[in-house]
Specification:
The complex is a heterodimer of chains A (264) and B (212).
Chain A lengths: L1 H5 L4 H88 L4 H29 L2 H21 L4 E6 L7 H20 L5 E8 L3 E7 L6 H6 L3 H12 L3 E6 L5 E7 L2
Parallel strand pairs in A: 1-2
Antiparallel strand pairs in A: 2-3, 3-5, 4-5
Helix pairs in contact in A: 2-3, 2-7, 4-5, 5-7
Chain B lengths: L2 H23 L5 H27 L5 H22 L3 H19 L9 H22 L8 H19 L11 H29 L1 H6 L1
Helix pairs in contact in B: 1-2, 1-7, 2-3, 3-4, 3-5, 5-6, 6-7
């Protein structure tokens, strides 16, 4: 056999055998490579899908939580501002119907009723306004945001510096999200951050950018990453709905900064 | 009886079993599965005729080799077109068939030899398809015909060189004994290929057959 293999004419067979061996080794390596990569890639995809799922779950959770919180707040407001006042009106009216009081007292009671109804009317208007500011519907986002800034300014707790530029380039739904984001940011700064000064700069060019800065207590971004409050989650999910990007930076004692970028 | 013939008969029996098993699931499965089953059938028919020539007429029949590689190319191209899902595979199939027609027209005596060029080109293309399918399998979690594909890749790579070198068997200077090594290798890998086809059926289609 060996002798035959060494024959000149037989060399070609040897070459073919070697070629087959090399090709087989290459094919084997290829298959092994593909199988390992396949496992890796599929695991990575699976992990990604799981992360996405978890994120969606969290989002849903926080949405429901926010909804419940909001309902509770509205119920509380309705009870405090309207029901209790109307109760007094009802009691006073009963006293008037009974007619056991003199004229002067009647006059006083009527004035009292008038005062309370005026107050209640005011409160109900404010409640409705807080739920959905009519100015946003009627005059657009810029006016609504300016009004929001004025409102916070007039509360004297905080000084708000607004520099807004907006050319009505988004539709109404998106405008509401931006408005709510700003509202939430203000609320966070005042309620949690105890900020005294807030600067908001909004620009409407190729994209819409919002730069927000306060001088409040700030927060620990690492801790927030692990466990976000509803407010921040709410802002994030709104930015996501808008198809935008958000980044924030903050250190305790040095205020916080938010940058939001929204595609038109 | 020579060893090559014996091993070849073992391979044919394996093939026969696979054909029967695949036919059991034929009606319910996808078009790709059907093309593959037809491919197995055509291989079985050619194998049986080939064995008949060797055992009864005692003569090698190179004429059949043309049927073998052309039907293999057509049916496996259709199979890969389905599972890879690219239309250009069909275009390549038609162009290669057209070129083969021209080749046979220009060189009619090719019928009595191995068409090394034809076998080389068609099998290389099938190897390429097989690798393309492997690449496709990277991104899909559950993918059919993965084992068959690996079997095809290995078998085609081994057999392409054996068949391309087929005309050497006509060369009287080369000792038959040596050429037979190539035939052995081809036959052994053919049996491995058939085993992988069986494993694919057992893994993915056996339970489906039981359920029905």
């Amino acid at each position: 056999m060996e002798k035959e293999l060494l024959q000149e004419d037989a060399q070609i067979i040897v070459i073919i055998l070697i070629a087959i061996l090399i090709l087989l080794l290459m094919a084997g390596a290829l298959i092994v490579f593909f199988f390992f990569s396949r496992k890796k890639i599929i695991n990575a995809e699976l992990e990604k899908a799981n992360l996405e799922l978890n994120y969606q779950k969290n989002l849903l959770h926080s949405t429901i939580e926010t909804q419940e919180k909001e309902r509770k707040r509205i119920a509380q407001d309705l009870h405090d501002a309207i029901s209790s006042k109307l109760n007094i009106v009802s009691l006073s009216t009963n006293v008037l119907i009974d007619g056991k009081i003199n004229k002067q007292e009647q006059q006083e009671t009527l004035h009292h009723i008038l005062e309370i109804t005026t107050n209640t009317l005011d409160s109900s208007r404010r409640l409705a306004h807080n739920l959905l500011p009519p100015i946003l519907e009627n005059f657009g986002l810029q006016a609504a945001m300016e009004e929001l800034c004025d409102e916070f300014n007039s509360s004297k707790k905080v000084q708000v510096d607004c520099d807004l530029e907006y050319h009505n380039s988004l539709d109404k739904d998106k405008e509401l999200h931006i408005f709510r984001i700003l509202q939430e940011l203000f609320n966070n700064s005042v309620r949690h951050g105890k900020a005294e000064k807030i600067v908001v700069v909004m620009r409407d060019q190729e994209k819409i950018t919002i730069d927000y800065k306060d001088n409040g207590q700030g927060f620990d971004t690492e801790a927030v990453l692990k466990k976000k409050g509803i407010g921040l989650k709410n802002i994030e999910s709104r930015v996501e709905i808008l198809g935008g990007e958000m980044s924030y930076s903050s250190t305790i004692g040095n205020g916080s900064e938010f940058h939001i970028l929204i595609n038109k | 009886m020579r060893w090559t013939v014996l091993i070849s008969i073992v391979g044919t029996v394996f093939l026969l079993i696979n054909v029967l098993l695949y036919f059991k699931s034929f009606a319910k499965e996808s078009k790709a599965f059907k093309f593959f089953t037809i491919y197995l059938c055509s291989m079985l028919v050619i194998q049986i005729i080939m064995t008949y020539f060797v055992l009864v007429i005692k003569k090698q029949n190179l004429f059949l080799s043309h049927f073998y590689f052309i039907s293999q190319f057509i049916l496996l191209s259709l199979f890969y077109e389905r599972i890879i899902g690219k239309k250009y595979l069909r275009v390549i199939l038609y162009s290669i068939l057209f070129l083969l027609c021209i080749q046979y027209y220009l060189n009619p005596q090719l019928i009595s030899q191995y068409n090394s060029l034809g076998i080389g080109v068609t099998q290389s293309l099938l190897i390429l398809y097989s690798i393309l399918y492997l690449a496709k399998s990277l991104k899909i979690d559950k993918i059919d015909f993965l084992i068959i594909n690996v079997g095809l890749l290995i078998y085609l790579i081994v057999s392409v060189l054996v068949f391309v070198a087929g005309n050497l068997s006509l060369d009287l200077n080369i000792p038959k004994k040596l050429y037979r090594i190539l035939i052995y290798i081809n036959l052994i890998f053919y049996i491995i290929f058939q085993t992988l086809i069986f494993i694919e059926w057992r893994k993915n289609y056996y339970k489906k057959t039981l359920r029905s």
